[in-house]
Design goal:
Elements: H1 3-23, H2 29-66
């Protein structure tokens, strides 16, 4: 299992645990919905950040491959 898939599995597991914890907490419905929305935004932001980092790495590799290599 690669580091990226381990990280993705961890994020999904953490999000699922957080949502289940919120759903089973004794709060009013409106408070529970607010918490679920907040956790969803956090997960979305984390995934966007990881995607952007991966995209930057791919672009860096692409740029390195496009530069002409000198032969010694």
């Amino acid at each position: 299992m690669s580091n990226g898939s381990k990280l993705a599995a961890f994020i999904v597991g953490a999000a699922a645990g957080a949502v289940l914890g919120i759903l089973f907490a004794p709060d009013k419905g409106s408070e529970t919905r607010r918490k679920v929305n907040e956790e969803g935004r956090k997960l979305s932001d984390a995934l966007k950040e990881k995607f952007n980092k991966m995209k930057d790495k791919v672009n860096a590799v692409k740029d390195d491959m496009e530069q002409p290599q000198g032969f010694a």
